Amino acid sequence: MQKEQREVWMRGALPNIPPLLQPVAHALLQVAEDIALLLEEVDETKLWERPNQVASPAFHIQHIGGVIDRMFTYARQEALSEAQFAYLQQEGKYAAEITKASLLRDVQAQIRRAVDELSSVREETLTEKRYLGRQQLPTTLIGLLFHAAEHSQRHVGQLLVTIRCL
Questions:
Q1: What is the CATH number for 89?
Q2: What DSSP designation does 4 have?
Q3: In a domain, 4, yes or no
Q4: What number of CA atoms fall less than 13 Å from residue 148's CA on the CB side?
Q5: Is 0.90 surpassed by the pTM of this model?
Q6: Three-state DSSP class for 138?
Q7: Which residues does residue 131 pair with via DSSP β-bridges, in sequence order?
Q8: DSSP labels for 25-55?
Q9: What radius of gyration, in Å, describes the C-alpha atoms of the chain?
């Protein structure tokens, strides 16, 4: 995959995404592009390696998809499903069937779903109360959506460093 010359946010507004959510969509799409490029540098046999006991490349990619899924679930004011809890428990655990291709496919699909969902969010609802997790920590709709993007970007940075250490 060849790297686009400009970052996603520098390419202009995305169609059908409310203006106040453009940064969230741009950040998520940048995550998808960055992961694809970073995975090109990783040997398939090193996906689960943990240099200096940091999280593996596979964990970071799984976690990004999981965080996006969970934050968007809370944004819709839904509780996590049993499948989501099971996924959370498996993040970072070695599984022979998980490959670079499957990790990339899954995280990019999750990002596409999230960006599609952003198109249906009405800006006037962004400051509405939402609750996070079992403890029902108070937040807002925009807080959850922003966190999905911000947390994903943070793990891309960690993924980059982990890959360099490998």
A1: 1.20.120.450
A2: P
A3: no
A4: 32
A5: yes
A6: strand
A7: 138
A8: HHHHHHHHHHHHHHHHTS-GGGTT--GGGPP
A9: 16
Answer yes or no: is 12 within a domain: no
Q: Give the residue numbers spanning the domain of 90.
A: 18-165
Q: Is residue 101 part of a domain?
A: yes
66 assigned to some structural domain: yes
**DSSP β-ladder status, 137-140 and 129-132:** antiparallel
* Token pair recorded at residue 62: 């799984």
CB 102 within 8 A of CB 47: no
Q: Hey, what amino acid is at 87? A: Y
Dihedral sign, CA of 145, 148, 69, 12?
positive
Q: How many domains does the chain have?
A: 1
pLDDT in tens, the chain (166 residues): 666 689 999 999 999 999 999 999 999 999 999 999 999 999 999 999 999 999 999 999 999 999 999 999 999 999 999 999 999 999 999 999 999 999 999 999 999 999 999 999 999 999 999 999 999 999 999 999 999 999 999 999 999 999 999 9
- The first and second tokens of residue 138, run together, are 């108070």
Q: How far apart are the first and last CA of the chain?
A: 21
